[in-house]
Specification:
mainly alpha, Serine Threonine Protein Phosphatase 5, Tetratricopeptide repeat, about 0% strand, elongated, disordered N terminus, disordered C terminus
Length: about 250
């Protein structure tokens, strides 16, 4: 049995002695969801056969393998490395796309939903990085196979980012920081046109300008609101005080 095992190992090493063989086995491991083994083989391929045709594709496959293995930092590093080493390579669209996917926000888990967690209140650091990566795909590679999905994800991220900024503007308003509230709300209107949160942002602008005694800006914001939306401005602003039992 020991002799057979040693013979098997030697046979495997002999088979994996070419870039084609290593890459073939790595792809098989990826298909079998054996990401740990696939990562080792892809790393070996890029280290031992760096100038082979398979090595460049292995760099891209490493991004995916790291991501599926839950090693997001390694996946981002691999994507950045590919972009830096091959800035004019058309396959950079995939590296940028995966950077967007890796930073794309997860949905609320059951515990968060049970406690009524509002994802729009989470700091949007990763959201902005994801949005910028997808925007790079759409703007630099408009005919990429990933451009359509990147655009759809950008719309979702736009709505999330707008909702967060409205949450911040509302926070400022409730604490009587009306200048900061008006500026943050105005930024939402200018940067996130089409997002559902624009309605609340306009309403907050009207109320903040009124508090500041700025009649002309308040009237102009109210006119824009009236042309685009119906209903009470106060209701659209959704102002309320948070209580001690609200964790999010």
């Amino acid at each position: 049995m020991l002799a057979l095992a040693l013979a098997g190992c030697a046979h495997r090493k002999l088979m994996l002695n070419s870039p084609v063989a290593v890459y073939t086995q790595a792809k098989k491991d990826l298909a079998d969801y054996d990401y740990g083994s696939a990562i080792k083989l892809l790393q070996r391929l890029t280290a031992v056969f760096p100038f082979s045709m398979q090595a460049r594709q292995a760099q891209l496959d490493l991004i995916f393998a790291y991501y599926r293995a839950g090693e997001n930092k390694a996946a981002l590093d691999a994507a950045d490395t590919f972009i830096q080493q091959h800035p004019t390579q058309p396959r950079c669209d995939y590296a940028w796309y995966m950077k967007g996917v890796i930073n794309f926000p997860r949905r609320a888990d059951p515990i968060e939903r049970a406690f009524g967690a509002r994802m729009s209140k989470r700091p949007p650091i990763k959201l902005r990085k994801s949005f910028d990566a997808f925007r790079t795909v759409v703007e630099r590679y408009p005919y990429s196979r990933y451009a359509r999905d990147a655009w759809q994800r950008m719309i979702y991220l736009r709505d999330r980012l707008a909702a967060y900024d409205v949450y911040v503007a509302r926070y400022y308003y409730m604490r009587h920081a009306y200048v900061a509230a008006a500026r943050r709300a105005q930024d939402v209107v200018e940067r996130f046109q089409g997002a559902p949160a624009v309605r609340s942002a306009l309403a907050l602008m009207v109320l903040a300008y009124r508090r500041l005694g700025l009649k002309t800006p308040a009237r102009q914001a109210q006119e824009v609101y009236a042309k685009n939306f119906k209903g009470s401005i106060v209701a659209a602003a959704a102002l309320r005080h948070d209580h001690w039992w609200r964790f999010w």
